Amino acid sequence: ANPGNSPLITVEGWPVVIATDAAGRLAYATNMRGSLLVIDVASASQVASVPIPGEAHSLAVSPRGDRVYVTNTDNSVFAVDAATRRIVGTASVGAGPWGITFWTSRADSLMYVTARNGGSISEVDMRSDTVRRTFPIGGRPHGIAISHDGSTLFVADDSRGEIVFVDRISGAATRRIPEAGAFAIAITPDGRTLYVTTNSGYFVVVDVASGTITERYQ
Known about the structure:
Blueprint: E1 15-20, E2 26-31, E3 35-40, E4 45-51, E5 56-61, E6 67-72, E7 76-81, E8 87-92, E9 97-104, E10 109-115, E11 120-125, E12 130-136, E13 141-146, E14 152-157, E15 162-167, E16 173-178, E17 182-187, E18 193-198, E19 203-207, E20 212-217
Antiparallel strand pairs: 1-2, 2-3, 3-4, 5-6, 6-7, 7-8, 9-10, 10-11, 11-12, 13-14, 14-15, 15-16, 17-18, 18-19, 19-20
């Protein structure tokens, strides 16, 4: 289906995850056949392909927009310079890296990566591309988001069927909200609400303060 007859963009390989830069000028897509695809939004065309070792899987654009971080199925996260379109750093993380979120401050430049096959979250220093800590949370974590004050990580676990609140400082799970097949997660600009998709065909709304599901759609 193509609602509204939107333009279709033909790209190489098997695209998996897509994200745009802050300006909406470029889009990036991972290609399971081993590349990061760069798409010009205005012309709706692929303009570059950056080789990624292994099977490129997920991605996220850094807060400053200067790097695109790409995971592969061999437990690595690659930092791709957005200007030169070259890999400039590599971090080895937990098994099956998928979700990525960021926390930056005057003191820290950190990336958090879920390991869906390792049941954990890796805390990566983006300046050195090294893992500082690993938080074992169990299950099969996929999507991840962070509170606006940086205190809490929100993780969607599709095997245990939970939305997990994790204290970013201690790495401990502080709340687990049952939701079968929780998969992708996002937080609203005001930080008050989480949106979670599930692999069982639902879309749920979570109130962060109370930790309760307020709406469910199918």
